[in-house]
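The aim of this short unit is practical: by the end, you should be able to scan a pair of folded records and say something sensible about each. We start with the first protein, listed as its amino acid sequence and then its structure tokens.
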Amino acid sequence: MTVYSSALVTLSRIFRWGLLYIVLIFSISIFFSFNEGWAAEEAIASQDKQQNQQKLKQLKQQIQKVKTRLNANKNRYNSAAQQLKTIEVKVAHTTGVLRQLQKKLKESKLEIDKLTRRETTLLKKKQQQQKVLSKQFRAAYGNGQEEYLKLLLNQDEPAELGRMLSYFKYLNAARSEEILKLSQTLQELSQLKLVIDKEHQNLVNLTQEQKNQVAQLSKQQSERKEIASHWQKKVRSADLQLNNLLADEKELQSIIEAVREIIEVFFPKESLIGLAKLKGKLRWPVVGKLINRYGSERYQGKMRWHGVMLKANEGRPVHAISTGQVVFSDWLRGYGLLTMVDHGKGYLSLYGHNQSLLKQVGDWVDPGEVIAYVGNTGGRATSSLYFEIRHHKKTVNPALWCK
């Protein structure tokens, strides 16, 4: 019976150790499998990122080749057009710098207000702490500096003496704590003053820089006005105006065709969902007056509008109508500073005559995101936005898509 029991115990131990060994091996296997899986996922993510960066680089290179090819056509970009492009790009840059300066100035003023409020709070706190300390000092030394010693020496009862010692110990501890608090407040005030002084100097520098940029912009705008006037004189004749408009459309079409080819080669079709399901639900890119409707006569009935013109104040934000990727962002004759967004499934949206562009080729945009500011680039006399939607090779009426 004893031998039998011993055998059972031995078998039980073997079973438990065997089970533990199996669990251990299984756990180690899972651990390494998880690590291998995690490493594999990380490697795939890194590879995808590199591939996307490579595609973006290729996209920019291909767009640059298209622009270089177009710029090589000397008949299209004569000296007057080149001068117009140069000055409008300069104005756009200066306007962008000014806009950033204004943002920084606003932030600086808000920061100074915030710091000043903090300083006011600390000054009140300092006054309160000084008042508390003053009361404590008056209580301690109201009857002379020897009051503490007198009170102790006049006590005959040990219990009373103990209470007095505890009392004065408490008073000293409270006083020390208040002194420490006041010291910390004064130190914070001192540091805060340095920060405020620095921020004030930053504000002065920004204000001066803004004045310089405003003066530069004023000079550039005067130069642009003169160049634009010269440009308009160059194309005063009816035939030349018509030829230029036709050539502008042809050039835009060339850009779009080249962009479509690049998109099909370098970007997966499933990355964007298009605009089909959003018909009639999109927001207009800018709040403005519709001055030229889609399909209406243009230039004495010899042409038609393929998009719409929206009159709006210069500098008003231009919003992306939907999710997409910027595939063109540059100056184009006839359209000025132009941004083109690919929405997928063959849909493109175009925004022309902008004052300045905020996005570069390859940037992703969300619905309603500001991508540019309304202007009059491209030689226009008044500020407005040219807006166009295309599906594959055909333009569509934006009024049917936007509400």
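Turning to the second protein, read its sequence before its tokens, just as you did above.
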Amino acid sequence: MSEKKVKLAVIGTGYWGPNLIRNFYDDGRVELKMICDIDKARATTIAAKYRNVVTTAQVQDVYTNPEVDSVVICTPTDTHFEIAKRCLESGKNLFIEKPMATTTAECRTLIEMARAKGLKLMVGHVFLYNPAVQYVKDRIDRDELGNIIYIYGKRVNLGPIRKDVNALWDLAPHDIAIFNYWLGATPLAANATGIQNINPPIHDVVFASFKYPNNVMASLHVSWLDPRKERQIVVVGTKRMVVFDDMDPVGPIHIYDKTVTRPTQKPITDTIQAFKAVIQEGDLVIPKINMGEPLKNECRHFVDCVLENRQPLSDGENGLEVVRVLEAATHSLNHAGIETKIGGPVTLRQIPRVSATA
């Protein structure tokens, strides 16, 4: 008896689509059946690298193909919901690139449809499958950093400039997903300000801040207008501090054995003698982490979930949580940076573990 396989179609062959196609095709448990793109010539050129793959410019062909049981959607964000809805109606498992949809209402509809039909729904928050991100999550869960005081991230580059979404919706989903994953929570409120420079009213620079439970603060700078490509997150805890730098050639994780404590809980007066912070300077550790390819890990995880009936790490609820934060930050961005509460209950949940090399 032959091994059961995922019979896959990919919709969208733009910037990210070819990378997903390559990784899914390389998984021996996948049969790549179809590639769909409105530019059929492009789809045909990409499909020529693979065997026995049908191409089409009509997304309807994917919905009606009985040989396809799972679909990857990597189209412009504003098309995600309608395509995903039709795929679920057709009984297809779904992998949707981030962000999941453009509103929380759309996300909830897709979650309910997938649940009702017993289908898998996974969102492409690829950094959750990065072994360095998982390493920091493990250190936080083991209380090696102590109580988290604050987190700040920077995700900037010179381009690429997008027209379908702003820099917040393009870049921030990565970091919001990481913040939520590390803290096991969604924020209570968001603030955001930005700049519309290249293509108003689209913001190409955004500064955002988020209030998490337990008085944890997080901030984020995203931009298409910076001279250098930077991907960095700093976590400050009461025991240790961590820098995750995805561009660092030495190692993505730097752990600083540094803390600042106050020697007394008495009220602080305005004299130096009355209060002196205790600064502890310790070692810098750069752990050896077997990085692999996060996108490969993510694709293999989706296949695992379909074939073995597992819950995805970045499931529909995970995608919904990120979109809720984006919606609140967008409201703030459009209203002079006003603090905006994040609708719905704040989620504190156990996120399923996944091996970095799965």
